[in-house]
Design brief:
Layout: H1 3-9, E1 16-22, E2 27-32, H2 35-43, E3 57-59, H3 69-100, E4 102-105, H4 108-116, E5 125-127, H5 131-140
Parallel strand pairs: 4-5
Antiparallel strand pairs: 1-2, 1-3
């Protein structure tokens, strides 16, 4: 057995929780052995945002938690429940869009313009666009919006 495996066999080890934030401003929690472990994983882009899979992740500002253990646990449980509810609502939004809108995929920018300028039938659509393309559409007056697209639980 390697020295590392032997050390892990000796019992539980301490971990630290960091509040993390991705390039797209999604906040989430990550658990690491220490700050150096986070730094190593972040440098190798091994940490991905659970909302958008972005691997450009940094530590968010954190306030120390002071209080009784039960209060801390209750706070974490409440936050986890709130996060679960938000993810459920976002999943319902995704289901609604997929059921009632036409998926135009990577042709979203062109199709949105065609609909806006009357060159294509008006209908609700969704698809892929870069941030730059979405900004250009908005600057032209084309009504567009970005949806937080959560992964399906069965994926």
């Amino acid at each position: 057995m390697s020295a590392r495996a032997d050390k892990l066999q000796q019992g539980p080890f301490a971990v630290i929780s960091f509040n993390l934030i991705c390039k797209n401003d999604h906040e989430f929690e990550g658990w690491f052995r220490n700050s150096a472990d986070f730094d190593r994983q972040a440098k190798k882009q091994l940490i991905a945002c659970p909302d958008c899979d972005n691997t450009e992740v940094t530590k968010s500002l954190m306030a120390p938690v002071v209080g009784a253990k039960d209060t801390v646990r209750a706070g974490r449980t409440e936050k986890a429940e709130q996060a679960r509810k938000v993810r459920k609502m976002l999943g319902e939004v995704r289901d609604y869009v997929e059921t009632n809108f036409d998926d135009v995929g990577d042709d979203f920018t062109d199709e949105a313009r065609k609909i806006y300028y009357g060159e294509s039938d008006e209908r609700p659509i969704y698809g892929n666009a870069t941030d730059e393309d979405a900004k250009e559409l908005a600057d032209e007056g084309v009504p567009v919006g970005k949806l937080p697209w959560v992964k399906r639980a069965d994926n």
